[in-house]
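Example for tutorial group B:
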């Protein structure tokens, strides 16, 4: 399934690409793309939405303080 989330707190496009690459390594995630300018995260995953959102936020918290993944 394809999920779309808002993402705030990213400082640069390079950081967005690095964060998306980390998110793609999560078990159950097929792809993760961040549109830095639109502040949108698109994820293809078989995980339930709530579980996915929690896991993505944990990755973002570990990556850099202040990044929020929102529905």
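The residue assignment follows.
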């Amino acid at each position: 399934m394809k999920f779309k989330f808002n993402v705030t707190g990213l400082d640069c496009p390079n950081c967005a690409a690095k964060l998306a690459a980390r998110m793609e390594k999560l078990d159950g995630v097929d792809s993760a793309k961040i549109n830095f300018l639109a502040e949108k995260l698109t994820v293809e995953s078989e995980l339930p939405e709530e579980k996915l959102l929690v896991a993505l936020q944990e990755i973002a918290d570990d990556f850099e303080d202040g990044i929020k993944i929102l529905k």
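The domain at 2-70 is CATH 3.30.70.100 (Alpha-Beta Plaits). Compare this with the pattern of hydrophobic and polar residues in the output above.
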